[in-house]
Amino acid sequence: MSVAVAATIAFGATGCEFLSPSRTQEIRQITDGVDVSTGTIDVRNALLISDSGKDARFVGTLVNTGNGDRTVTLEVDGDDQTVEVAGNSTTVLADDGEHDTVDFDDVSVKPGSLVKMYFSYDGAEGASATVPVLTSGQEQYQTLAPSPTPTSTPTSPSNSGSEPTGGASAPGTQSGSQTDSSEGDNGTN
Asked: Strands 127-134 and 41-49, how do they pair?
């Protein structure tokens, strides 16, 4: 009988806990990025912004809890960039007009996917994290996408001093007076 009484008391004592879940058991990350630590460097809210999938900007915070300055290497898709982080300080990386940026050119990161990044510095083992690739479509990220790298486009030779005349014409037709730039060309190359 004492076992039955003990079971009833135990059930009654835990009944309140059973009906209301403990909030400390529900850990929620309220950021879009991920956190990772290596040695004295803590990486907070790490994510990539990319609209094209060919380049990306790292957005996050690097916290150096050590006394010495650190040169932190960030690597994604074989491309690595370095950031100097002073001892006992925080470096915010975002393009908001007051912070530095870290851009990765010529990487293959699909917006909406998760990408493996590696964080390291001399004297530490390094750590990898799977970070989200977001677009500038969300309001808080509109100014954070990397600017496309300018590429040179071939230009066609122009006839110096000549101006086309006449109105618009259908493709393959000529209107107005135009000069033939192939004078003297016998069709052989």
From this structure: parallel
